[in-house]
Design goal:
311 residues; alpha/beta
C-alpha cells in the first residue's frame, strides 16, 4: 500500500487519449457521420482521439476500411493530432509486411502509429519485432493487451518492457492488463530507466491510475470525453471535485467492462445514444451484445456523471 501512496502525483497534467467508438448501421456498414461528429467532439474536449483500436473495431475492419477511417479522421480533425492502431488483420500478405503497410498508411495521414498485437506477437522476440514495425515512424507507441480483450493478447515481461523503452522512436506503451500491480511496476521501471516514457493506462477498471503517474488511452473515455477532460483539468488544478467525478466515471467503467469484456462496445453504443451523442449507433456484427435492459443500468450512471460535472 505504501508504494501507491508515495506515488500520488497531484497537480500533474495528464496526457489524455481516447479510443473512439466506430458506430455501425443496421446494414452492417460503419456510420461515418456519427463517427466524425464524435471524433471532433473528442478532439475539441482536449483529448487526442485514437482510431482503428479495439473500440473502433480495428481487428474486424478490412484493410481498406481502416484506410478509409484514417483518411476520414484526418479530414475531420484538420491538423489536430490523432493516434491510429497499426493492424495487419485481413491483409493478403504475411503479417510483418501487413504491419509495415499499416504503419505507412498511418504516416501518410500524419498520425502516430500504435502497434496493435496479433498472433505474430504470441511468442518470440517482441522487441525486435516491434523495432522492425515502427522503424519508419518518427514517433510510435507499443501496446500490451490482456487476453480478456483478445485471445491473442500478450503482457510482456518487465525485461522485455525495459528493452522496448530502449527503442528511441517509441514514446510509450498502452498497458491493458487490468492489473494495478503490473502497471505500477511499469511506472517504477519508467522512473528508473526512461523518465520521458509514457505509460498509458488501458485499465478501464482503475481509471484513477492517473493519480499515480500513468497517462491514459482508454475505451471508457469514449462514453463521455468531456467528463474525462473536466476530470483531468480538476486534477491538474488540485480541485477536490476530481474525486467525485472520477468515482462516477469509474462506476460506469465497472458496469461497462464487466464480463464478457469485449461487449463494452455495445454498452458504449447504448450510452452514446442515451446521452444524445449519437443517433442510433450499433456495433460491428461480430461484437458480443449486452442484454436489452443495459440501458436501465446506464441511465442512473449517466445522471451521476452529469451531477458530478456540475458540482
Amino acid at each position: 500500500m505504501k508504494r501507491y501512496v508515495e506515488r500520488i502525483r497531484p497537480g500533474r497534467k495528464i496526457d489524455a487519449n481516447s479510443a473512439v467508438l466506430l458506430p455501425f448501421k443496421a446494414d452492417g456498414k460503419p456510420d461515418y457521420a456519427d463517427f466524425e461528429k464524435h471524433l471532433v467532439a473528442t478532439s475539441k474536449a482536449g483529448i487526442v482521439p485514437a482510431v482503428n483500436m479495439d473500440t473502433g473495431f480495428g481487428p474486424q475492419l478490412t484493410p481498406a476500411e481502416r484506410v478509409d477511417v484514417l483518411k476520414l479522421t484526418r479530414k475531420a480533425l484538420g491538423t489536430s493530432p490523432f493516434i491510429a492502431g497499426a493492424c495487419a488483420f485481413g491483409e493478403d500478405v504475411d503479417l510483418l509486411r501487413g504491419y509495415k503497410k499499416a504503419v505507412a498508411a498511418i504516416l501518410d495521414v500524419g498520425a502516430i502509429p500504435i502497434v496493435f498485437q496479433s498472433e505474430l506477437f504470441a511468442e518470440g522476440d517482441v522487441v525486435a519485432l516491434t523495432k522492425k514495425i515502427v522503424a519508419p515512424a518518427p514517433k510510435a507507441l507499443a501496446f500490451e493487451l490482456g487476453t480478456m480483450f483478445a485471445p491473442f493478447g500478450r503482457i510482456y515481461s518487465l525485461d522485455d518492457y525495459r528493452r522496448l523503452m530502449d527503442i528511441p522512436n517509441l514514446a510509450g506503451a498502452k498497458h491493458s492488463s487490468l492489473s494495478r500491480d503490473l502497471e505500477l511496476a511499469r511506472l517504477e521501471l519508467r522512473d528508473r530507466h526512461r523518465p520521458d516514457w509514457k505509460v498509458y493506462t488501458g485499465n478501464d477498471l482503475a481509471i484513477d491510475m492517473v493519480m499515480y503517474g500513468s497517462d491514459y488511452l482508454l475505451g471508457i473515455s469514449t462514453f463521455d470525453p468531456e467528463a474525462f477532460a473536466l476530470r483531468d483539468r480538476w486534477w491538474a488544478e488540485g480541485d477536490a471535485r476530481f474525486l467525485e467525478l472520477n468515482d462516477a466515471l469509474q462506476a460506469l467503467g465497472a458496469v461497462a467492462f464487466r464480463d464478457p469484456v469485449p461487449a463494452y462496445k455495445d454498452s458504449a453504443a447504448a450510452y452514446l445514444k442515451l446521452t444524445g451523442r449519437m443517433r442510433d449507433p450499433l456495433v460491428h456484427p461480430k461484437c458480443p451484445r449486452r442484454p436489452a435492459w443495459e440501458i436501465d443500468l446506464l441511465r442512473p450512471l449517466a445522471a451521476q456523471i452529469e451531477k458530478a460535472k456540475k458540482a
